[in-house]
Fold:
Amino acid sequence: MARIVPTGLKWIIRSLSVSLFVLLAWLLQFALGDIGDLTPPARSAYLERHLDPQLLQRERDLERDLEESEAEVGRHVEVQDTLLASMDVARETMQEMTGLHRLSIEQGIPPSPEQEAALADAQGRFIAAQEAFEQANARISELNAEAYRVSGELADAQERIAEQRAPADEAYSQALSEHRLSVAAWKLGFIVPVFAVAAWLFSRSRDSRHGPIFLAFMLASFLHLGLVMHDTFPEEYFKYIAICAGIVAVLAFLLRVLRSAAQPQPALLLKRRRESYFKAQCPECAYPFPDERGDTFYCPACGVGLFEPCGSCSTSRHRLLPHCQSCGAQA
Ligand SMILES: [Zn+2]
Ligand SMILES: [Zn+2]
Structure:
């Protein structure tokens, strides 16, 4: 017999069911996450298998040579900057000394030996810096030529590596897609039975007191079933799977409603009859029956018996309700 559940208790049951759903969905998420943790294939292993180690070593050597020669060019350019600065200083000294020298000659005084020595020293430093600058220039040209040769060889080696890498990448992507398929198979192998068990438990206990528990379990597993299928199947297949699942769910619900309309469950039937009697209407055809009537009363519209004398106390009782209103005897 159905009992009226107080509204407060109903809301407590609903909120606990929602909490249970959230926790179960979380638990399933962790379980599926652990299943998805299977080690994927390592790309390096495929590269090692397909690439010539000597060629890779050569690529590394050439890259190092190129870096070294670029660094050396950089050092020589820095030296040249220093040399340019010292040439400027030497040039200024030379100009100064030449000016003094000319002044001395104009005044008829011979330049002092110190002036002569300073001028010769500045000239010497200028020439030495200029020579060093040219040497650095020559070395930079040599290094640039070397770098050009090395980068040509490097490009050649990299081209050959790229040729060898193509089959390695192909083998790797195949292994990766196999790995994804196997993860998907494990996940589906886990979530499909869980959902099937949950749906079975729910369908068995739908009208029992444990209905909300199994409903939460079924919804949580259905959510993850959908998510796993979404991850597994490409978009173009998933939309068909999703729409088919939707059609199946709507059909199942519709069939249930139709069955319940044709053959109402006892609790539902009792509820309908109770409400009709309360409104003074025939439960079968909604014809309003009068307050004034005999002990026995049949609906004049559809002919169903609505009142009859009680078998226990003989007063008039509702024929379609389970108990007599005068003595409580069950029909
Ligand atoms: Zn009727
Ligand atoms: Zn009675």
